[in-house]
Amino acid sequence: MTMENKKKMLPRGLRNNNPLNIRRTANLWQGLSKEQNDPDFFQFESMAWGYRAAFVVLRTYRNRYGINTVERIVRRWAPEKDGNDTEYYIRKVTVLTGLERTQIVDDQDPRTMMNLVAAMSRVENGVPARQVEVCKGWKLYQG
Question: Does residue 24 contact residue 41 with C-beta atoms inside 8 Å?
Fold first, then answer.
């Protein structure tokens, strides 16, 4: 099997280096691929840039909307109106992170944030996140 065919078999978020499946908008993210072939989701140059974007979105949720618990984050990220099983998503993230659904997420703690984003990536893509890539994304985010 060629590398091209192997890549086609990956979940969409991983093919796009966009592990949390950030939808395309007018935003011009750092680390975007020059070619944006997916009509719905951004494509990044590397997984690290995709994870960085996820951390930025979560910061925006907190600062702009006061969204700071697993439950509220996931309800905004993957709403039922978009066809998501939001309740399953919340339960899975709480199991994977050890956070309670209504617990305020410590967004200054790298371990907490990297675990949260890795858990969300797992739900989005159906496979465990590579922690080394999540860590690289956190470092880019911290700038």
Answer: yes
Q: What pTM does this model have?
A: 0.93
Q: Where are the beta strands (DSSP E) in the chain?
A: none
Q: Rounded to an integer, what distance in angstroms lies between the CA atom of residue 72 and that of residue 103? A: 10
110 burial class (0-12, 13-18, 19+ CB within 10 angstroms)? Answer: middle
**Of the candidates 120, 105, 119, which has an alpha carbon nearest to the alpha carbon of residue 59?**
105
Mean pLDDT of 36-58: 97
Cα 106 to chain center, whole Å? 17
Tens of pLDDT, residue by residue over 53-85, are: 999 999 999 999 999 999 999 999 999 999 999
pLDDT of residue 7: 64
At a CB cut-off of 8 Å and minimum separation 6, what does 72 contact? Answer: 61
Q: Which two tokens stand for residue 100?
A: 């309670």
